[in-house]
Amino acid sequence: MSDTLPQRQRPGRLPRSARRAQLLEVALEVFVEQGYHAASMDEIAERAGVSKPVVYQHFPGKLDLYLALIETSCETIVTGVREALSSTSDNRRRVGAVMDLWFAYVADEGAAFRLVFESDLTNDPTVREQVDRVINESAAAIAEVIGEDTGLPTEAAHLLALGLVGMGHFGARNWLTSASSLSKDDATRLVGNLAWRGIGGFPREDQPQHDTNQGEE
Fold first, then answer.
1. Is the Cα torsion angle 126, 127, 128, 132 positive or negative in sign?
2. Is 170 inside any structural domain?
C-alpha cells in the first residue's frame, strides 16, 4: 500500500453500480501512479476499502478493469466532441468548442488523459483499439459536419476532420506535458484560431466563394 495515500475509510454496502464506479475511480489513481504492470488488484482493493474478491466480482481480472477505465475515458471524449458540434450552428464557434473540449479534458481530467494516451499498454491490441476509437469517432463526427456544409467527398471531409482532431489532441497534449506558461484559455484560443483559419477557407455550399473568409480575425 502507498505510504503517501492512506486507505480510504471502509465503506458500507453500496449498490452494484456505485461500487463499480468507486472501484474505477480508485483504479484510475493506481494505474496512473504506477502504470499497468506495477499496479496490483490488492492495492486497488485496499485503497477502495474492500476485499479483493469484491473487486473480482465486478472485474474478472486486471486487464478487464483497465479496459473498462479506457473505455469510459474514451467515451467521455467522443461524447464531448459530439456535444461540442451540436452546441451551436455557427461553424467558427463549433471549431472553438471542439478545441476547448480537448484542452478542458486535459486540464480537468489529466489523470484520465494520461491513462488513455500515455499508457504503458498501448501496444496491446484491445487497448490500441480504444485509443484509435477516440481519434476515428471524433473525426467521423467532425467529417459529417464538414461534408454537410461544404459538399466535399467523404474521404476529403474525413481527412480535414483528422487534421482538426490532430490539432486539438496533440496541441492539448503538448500544452499539458510541456508545462507551458500559456494559460489553458490562451492555448485553446491560439489553436482554435489556427484551426478556423484553415477550415474556414472551405466555402459552405450555400455561401458564395468570396465570403469564405468572413469572420476571420
1. positive
2. yes
**Contacts of residue 165, Cβ cutoff 8 Å, sequence gap at least 6:** 135, 138, 139, 142
**Dist CA 187 CA 195 (whole Å):** 12
Q: Name the domain count of the chain.
A: 2
Q: Give the range of the structural domain holding residue 178, as residue numbers without chain letter.
A: 71-205
Instruction: Provide the angle, in degrees to the nearest 10, between the axes of the packed helices 184-199 and 91-108.
Output: 150
Sequence-distant (6+) residues with CB within 8 A of 115 are: 28, 31, 32, 69, 70, 73
Q: How many DSSP H helices and E strands does the chain contain? A: 9, 0
What sign does the dihedral 37-42-46-48 (CA atoms) show? positive
Question: What predicted TM-score, i.e. pTM, was given to this entire model?
Answer: 0.78
- In whole angstroms, give the CA distance from residue 159 to residue 103: 22
pLDDT tens track for 128-187: 888 888 899 999 999 999 999 999 999 999 999 999 999 998 999 889 888 889 999 999
Angle at 142 between CA 139 and CA 148, to 5 degrees: 135
The mean pLDDT value of the chain amounts to 85
Residues in the chain: 217
Q: Which residue has the cell 507551458?
A: 180
Same domain, 52 and 76: no
The 10s digit of each residue's pLDDT in 12-26 is 577 888 999 999 999
Give the pLDDT score at 5: 44
